[in-house]
Amino acid sequence: MRRALALAAAAGDAGEIPVGAVMLGSDGVVLAEAANAREAEHDPTAHAEIRVLRAAGAALGDSHLDGCTLVVNLEPCTMCAGAVVLARVARVVFGAWEPRTGACGSVRDVLRDSRANHQVEVLAGVCAGECEELLRGFFELRR
Hints:
The chain is of the alpha/beta class. Helices cover 38% and strands 19% of the residues. It contains 5 helices and 5 strands; from the N terminus they run H-E-E-H-H-E-H-E-E-H. It has helices at 2-13, 38-41, 48-60, 78-87, 128-142; strands at residues 20-24, 30-35, 69-74, 91-96, 121-124. The chain has a 5-stranded mixed beta sheet. The longest helix is centred in the last third of the chain and has 15 residues, at 128-142. It starts with a helix and ends with a helix. The mean pLDDT is 97.
């Protein structure tokens, strides 16, 4: 989570919403890392989670990320959670809850929906205070 927070802080400094993500392989080794880049890439899908899924898939040479763990400082949205399920990620660890668009247990629970062909283990609230403070500080400066 510390690395995800560092990536998020750098994204915030660049004017992006401060979200950072790290993908760990089944052995716990970092496969890929990414931060939000929606503004820089002029791409509404350039969320940290989507970018790290793409990079991890490229690193493994496979679209299935069996046994992998996604670590992100903010609860993923519906788009990102759906992509995590499709990639067959084993678990998602996140810091701050997203009460408006979260899809890992707050507004929706895409990752653990029994109707899907794959369910994802969720560990929420890791370093929650630090994650929330980073996001709150970013938005306070812009409002």
